[in-house]
Structure formats: structure tokens, C-alpha cells
């Protein structure tokens, strides 16, 4: 027996599935061509996927692996991670070469978009900290909500993990110091400009 998908889609999600603009979905609702399944407490429309299954193009969910290293001198380790993930049976491997403290990784963004788009069946990592140094538990929680299973291939890293953690701490201190000094510099400039604007020239 075929199971129906009763997951709820927002206006934007349904628009993306149907390949139209969000404004078009709202216009169709006003014209009676579409009917939302329910309204949220905030009065937002929600649509049941099963009601539009005949219109939505089916996409196969795939298993994705994610690999990451912090610096260019770890490229060999990155290739090792990628090969390990491929050997584990991942359909696709996404990788990043950037610090674990950086949340703006292009590969990570691509991964999250795929998970949010419900096209991922499983996420495989060689080590849990390859995803993020801090905050990975939140990503794992969202994966659970989207029925994405998590697989960690190896035990926590030893010396390599500690070495990279030291690098991340140094990076964090450097960024913090730069922002602190930048803020102080900005305040000093503002104070100087204020002093100059308030000064009255003495006539001859």
C-alpha cells in the first residue's frame, strides 16, 4: 500500500516545488484554484504535500557525505575523507576547506539546502566535528525533523583533532581581537570627529 506524504509546505516551499513564484500561489488561492490545508497561529498558509502529489515532480532522496578540513596543508586528509565517504556508499560527497568555526561554508550551505529541500535520505560524516565545531547538534536535530539519518563512520579524532581545535581557538581569538580593536578604533574616530565639530575657531 502506497503511503501518502502528509508533510506541510509553506507558500514558498510549494512555489518551489511547482516551479512558480510565491505571488502566483497566493493569487491562485484568492482565485480558488488552490486551497490551503490549514492556517497557522500566525495566519500563514500551509499545504499538504499529498494534495499536490500529481503536480510535484518526484525527486529521489539520496545519501550525502560531508568532508571538511581547516587549512590547505590538510588537503591530503580532505581527499582521504572524501574517499572514505565514497567507499561507504554515499551518492554524493560535499566538501569544504575552511575552519570549523566558520558557519558560512559554501559546502555546508549546499548541504543544508538539500536537507531542507527534502532530497536527502542520510548524512554521513567521517567524524562528527567535520560538520561544525560548535552547533552541530542543532543541525542533527533538524535532520531528524526531515527524516535524515546520521551516520558517523569513525571514532573521535585523536591528536589531529586536538591540533585542529587549537587552530580553531587561535582563529576565534584573532577574530574577536580584530572586532574589539575595530570597535575601539571606530569609537576613537567618532570622539575625534565630535571634538573637532564642537571646537570654535578663535578669531584674530
TrEMBL record:
The keyword DNA-binding applies. Residues 62-199 form the Resolvase/invertase-type recombinase catalytic domain. GO terms for molecular function: DNA binding; DNA strand exchange activity. GO terms for biological process: DNA integration. The active site is at 70 (o-(5'-phospho-dna)-serine intermediate). The keyword Transport does not apply. Keywords: DNA integration, DNA recombination, DNA-binding. It holds the Pfam family Resolvase. This is Resolvase/invertase-type recombinase catalytic domain-containing protein.
Amino acid at each position: 500500500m502506497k503511503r501518502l506524504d502528509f508533510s506541510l509546505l509553506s507558500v514558498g516551499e510549494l512555489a518551489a516545488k511547482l516551479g512558480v513564484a510565491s505571488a502566483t500561489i497566493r493569487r491562485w488561492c484568492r482565485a480558488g484554484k488552490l486551497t490551503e490545508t490549514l492556517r497557522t497561529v500566525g495566519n500563514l498558509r500551509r499545504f499538504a504535500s499529498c494534495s499536490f502529489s500529481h503536480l510535484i515532480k518526484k525527486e529521489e532522496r539520496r545519501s550525502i557525505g560531508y568532508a571538511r578540513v581547516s587549512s590547505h596543508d590538510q588537503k591530503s586528509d580532505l581527499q582521504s575523507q572524501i574517499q572514505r565517504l565514497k567507499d561507504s556508499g554515499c551518492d554524493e560527497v560535499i566538501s569544504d576547506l575552511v575552519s570549523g568555526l566558520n558557519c558560512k561554508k559554501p559546502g555546508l550551505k549546499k548541504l543544508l539546502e538539500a536537507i531542507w529541500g527534502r532530497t536527502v535520505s542520510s548524512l554521513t560524516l567521517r567524524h562528527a566535528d567535520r560538520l561544525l565545531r560548535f552547533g552541530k547538534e542543532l543541525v542533527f536535530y533538524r535532520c531528524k525533523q526531515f527524516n535524515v539519518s546520521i551516520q558517523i563512520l569513525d571514532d573521535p579524532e585523536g591528536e589531529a583533532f586536538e591540533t585542529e581545535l587549537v587552530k580553531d581557538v587561535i582563529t576565534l581569538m584573532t577574530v574577536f581581537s580584530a572586532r574589539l580593536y575595530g570597535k575601539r578604533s571606530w569609537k576613537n574616530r567618532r570622539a575625534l570627529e565630535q571634538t573637532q565639530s564642537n571646537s570654535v575657531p578663535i578669531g584674530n
